[in-house]
Design a protein that fits this description.
Layout (H helix, E strand, L loop, with lengths): L3 H21 L9 E5 L1 H9 L8 E5 L5 H14 L8 H12 L15 E6 L7 H11 L10 E6 L8 H14 L1
Parallel strand pairs: 1-2, 2-3, 3-4
GO biological process, one term: proteolysis
Protein name: Prolyl oligopeptidase family serine peptidase
InterPro entries: AB_hydrolase_fold, Peptidase_S9_cat
Length: 178
């Protein structure tokens, strides 16, 4: 848990390494690059959209675009449970500041109307459903001319596990938009 956000931001940086490798091997067709992830991978995917315009379409399954708010919720949970934090207040503030660079909720204009699909279970107790849903609703005006490029699927019964429908919708999304 203490290294969660370090891992997330490192994975975002590693995406560029992967992209460069596939580019060198001529394995990218006409610049079409999609990104998708589940849970932490969905969080990485959404943060990557703030860094890389070369991602042409994305799917977040149980991810959160609101890095700073999620970070603060995690801290509040740990403090409520009286879990001793291995960080000073200064280090916590430093981490919060670092996350702002990757927080899509703070810079939704970076979406640039790229196709984006969300899938999230309403009963998710690990990655808050509300953060993803609120972000989606706030970005609808950005897709006013192309509402087909933004979609949110909420599963009423699902917790922190992607349904078969979620996986099939991911495949359909990439088939249609990549």
């Amino acid at each position: 848990a203490p290294r969660f956000w370090e891992i997330v931001t490192n994975e975002i940086k590693e995406l560029e390494v992967l992209k460069n490798h596939f580019e060198q091997e001529n394995l990218i067709e006409k610049g079409r690059i999609g990104a998708a992830g589940t849970s932490m991978g969905g969080i990485v995917t959404l943060g990557a959209l703030t860094q890389y315009e070369w991602i042409t379409t994305a799917v977040s399954l149980m991810g959160s675009p609101a890095y700073v708010e999620f970070f603060d919720q995690q801290l509040a949970f740990m403090r409520e449970k009286k879990i001793e934090l291995p960080f000073t207040e200064g280090q916590i503030e430093q981490q919060r500041d670092k996350l702002k660079r990757f927080d899509l909720s703070l810079q939704p204009d970076k979406l640039k109307m790229r196709p984006l699909l969300f899938w999230h279970g309403k009963q998710d107790g690990t990655v808050p459903f509300a953060l993803a849903r609120r972000f989606y609703e706030s970005t609808i005006p950005l897709y006013e001319t192309r509402p087909d490029l933004l979609h949110f699927i909420e599963d009423e019964r699902a917790g922190h596990k992607v349904s078969r429908e979620g996986l099939l919708k991911t495949v359909e999304w990439f088939d249609a938009h990549l």
